[in-house]
Amino acid sequence: MSGIHSILRFILLPFSLLYGLITDVRNFLYDKNIFQVTVFDKVIINVGNLTVGGTGKSPHVEYLIRLLYPKFHLVSLSRGYGRKTKGFIIADQSATAESIGDEPMQFHQKFQNEVQVTVGEKRAEALTKIYEKLPFTDIVILDDAFQHRAVKASLNIVLMDFSRPIYEDFTFPAGRLRERRHGAKRADILIVTKCPNDLSKTAQEQIQHQLKPYLKATTPIFFTGIQYSTPKPLFENTSKAFSNTLLLVSGIANPKPFEAYCRKQFRVIKHLTFKDHHLFTEKDIPEMVDTFKHIQSEEKGILMTEKDMVKFKKFIKHEALQEIPLFYLPIEIYFLNQAQQEFNDLILQHISTESNP
């Protein structure tokens, strides 16, 4: 950390202590049932975190969808960050990133037959509507609702970015924690995400040791990494070939792993970054096209993340993009230590127990 960042963090620490105290009081009031907690007699799996953005929730939610379909009728419920609508919405053929948010739209496009995608900022109200309007629902996967204490999930899966461990972080604004570290004690499973492929057993044990004071003694810890697939064309009817000389475009919370991988695999000339959940508009296109045209190469293209792809598909007929090879990079997660089956068994055992109390 640079000297300027250290000084800034020191200045902000009193505000972080106040913020942490406020979240502690809020959690205490929920723990003592002074604030109302709604409990549903259904399997609700929450995938959340303690950190603001960028821990890899979307690919982990997708992993759960692949694991649980077709054995169960699945519904995902997200807040729908970045959408221009309010209230509860069940995604249908008219859904867009503007109407339901970028991540829910990604699930909707990718798993239309596997999961029913819904959004709603008031989770308890949204869940009630899900069970009324979608009575076939077996399991709801809550996306990013760990701090939404008004609903009690039957299973809390908490994600922690390997490069931003909670035990080295602080609450907002000096750090990126949404609540103090000991909030992780509500986790039933903790996953350390975005791990290097060669993360040693010793390093894993050190992380587990550092996490131990903030978790229940029974909370299992898993380690996952990101696996990138072959770039795919943004528009299905494209005839353009993929080129290794690239302009990267991303609007995600932590674009560094995306850029690092691309620089190892391809010839990256420049990376245009936008804020997380950025909804692309026509105003963004001239900058992208101009930057692309200034790349000194005959064979070149634009590569973006899968999350950004769903927000950009609306420009399929945009005249300025017709001659540009546009591609996106799909990702999936994988488990280190061959722990995939152990994780799967934990999830399925939980579902069995909750479904047959």
From TrEMBL:
User: Which EC class is this protein assigned?
Assistant: transferase
Q: Which reaction does it catalyse?
A: a lipid A disaccharide + ATP = a lipid IVA + ADP + H(+)
Look up keyword Ubl conjugation and say if it applies: no
Q: Name one Pfam family in it.
A: LpxK
Q: InterPro entries under this entry? A: LpxK, P-loop_NTPase
Q: Which EC numbers characterise this protein's activity in its record? A: 2.7.1.130
Q: Where does the source fall among the domains of life? A: Bacteria
Give the pathway annotation: Glycolipid biosynthesis; lipid IV(A) biosynthesis; lipid IV(A) from (3R)-3-hydroxytetradecanoyl-[acyl-carrier-protein] and UDP-N-acetyl-alpha-D-glucosamine: step 6/6
Output the Gene Ontology terms for molecular function: lipid-A 4'-kinase activity
UniProt keyword list: ATP-binding, Kinase, Lipid A biosynthesis, Lipid biosynthesis, Lipid metabolism, Nucleotide-binding, Transferase
Name the family the entry cites. Answer: Belongs to the LpxK family.
Q: What does this protein do?
A: Transfers the gamma-phosphate of ATP to the 4'-position of a tetraacyldisaccharide 1-phosphate intermediate (termed DS-1-P) to form tetraacyldisaccharide 1,4'-bis-phosphate (lipid IVA).
What name is this protein filed under? Tetraacyldisaccharide 4'-kinase
Q: Which organism is it from?
A: Arcicella rigui
Gene this protein is translated from: lpxK
